[in-house]
Design brief:
heterodimer, A: mainly alpha, B: mainly alpha
Chain lengths: 99, 146
C-alpha cells in the first residue's frame, strides 16, 4: 500500500513539473495574461489596474489598491472566512462553566 | 500548560520585545499604502506579539495584556468595520464598497478611496489579530491551568 502512495506522489510531482514547463516566462510581453486585450478582444483587467491604480485611489502601492478597493468583495469574504474559523474553534473547543 | 515553568530571562526579554513588535505591526498596517504590508500581515504580527507574552508569562498573567474573553467580540468588530465602510458608501448613494461615496465632506474621490482603503485595512488587522489569539486560547482550553 505504501509503494502505491509513493508511485502516485512521484507521478503527480512529475506531472506538475511537466505542466510548469508550459507556463510563460516571467515578464513575457507576449503571454496571454500580459496582453492588453484578451484573445476574445475584450480589454484586460491587469493593464487597467497598472495604469489607473495610483490615479483612482491616491495610493502608490498597486497591490493594496487591488486587494482592498478593486477586489473589495474578495477581501471581505476572506475576513469572513477567518471569523468563521475563529467562531468554529470557539464553539467546538471552549468548555462550558459547569463541567 | 504542558510542563510550563516560568523563566525570568525569557519573561523579561519578551516584555521588552513585545511592544516593539506591536509598534512594527502598526507601522505595517498604516504604511500599507506605500510599502508592502496591510491588514493581514500587520494583524498577524500584532497577534505574534500577544502570543509571545502568552507563551513567556503563561495564560493567567497575559490576561492583563489581552483578555481571553475579548477575542471573539473584537474579531466581529473588525468584520463590522469592513462591512460598515462598505455600507456607509452604499447609504450615501454609491455601490457597496465603492469608497468614493464615503460621507466625508471636502475630499476628492481619490482621497476618499484612500481613506476607505485605510479603514478597511484597520478592520482586517483587528479581526485577524483577535481571531488568532482567540484560536490559541481555545486550543489551550483543555489543558489544566498552571
Amino acid at each position: 500500500m505504501k509503494i502505491i502512495n509513493w508511485i502516485l506522489l512521484i507521478s503527480f510531482g512529475a506531472l506538475l513539473v511537466y505542466a510548469s514547463s508550459g507556463l510563460p516566462n516571467r515578464g513575457d510581453v507576449d503571454a496571454v495574461m500580459h496582453r492588453e486585450k484578451s484573445p476574445a478582444g475584450s480589454p484586460g483587467a491587469s493593464s487597467y489596474y497598472i495604469r489607473n491604480a495610483d490615479k483612482d485611489a491616491n495610493t502608490p502601492n498597486m497591490v493594496t489598491v487591488i486587494l482592498a478597493d478593486y477586489r473589495g468583495y474578495d477581501t471581505l469574504g476572506e475576513e469572513t472566512v477567518i471569523l468563521t474559523a475563529g467562531l468554529i474553534c470557539f464553539l467546538i473547543l471552549r468548555r462550558k462553566k459547569e463541567s | 500548560m504542558l510542563g510550563f515553568k516560568s523563566n525570568l530571562i525569557i519573561l523579561m526579554v519578551s516584555r521588552v520585545v513585545s511592544p516593539f513588535i506591536m509598534l512594527f505591526a502598526l507601522y505595517v498596517i498604516f504604511h500599507g499604502h506605500y510599502s508592502p504590508g496591510g491588514g493581514f500581515q500587520g494583524g498577524t504580527m500584532m497577534a505574534a506579539s500577544l502570543l509571545l507574552m502568552r507563551l513567556a508569562a503563561g495564560r493567567e498573567i497575559a490576561q492583563f495584556q489581552f483578555k481571553t474573553i475579548l477575542g471573539t467580540p473584537l474579531g466581529s468588530i473588525g468584520v463590522l468595520i469592513y462591512f460598515g465602510t462598505g455600507f456607509a458608501a452604499m447609504l450615501s448613494g454609491g455601490e457597496f464598497l465603492n469608497y468614493s461615496f464615503l460621507p466625508f465632506a471636502g475630499l476628492t474621490a481619490a482621497e476618499l478611496r484612500s481613506i476607505g482603503i485605510l479603514m478597511v485595512e484597520i478592520g482586517v488587522g483587528l479581526a485577524v489579530m483577535a481571531i488568532l489569539v482567540a484560536i490559541y486560547d481555545d486550543l489551550l482550553e483543555g489543558y489544566p491551568h498552571d
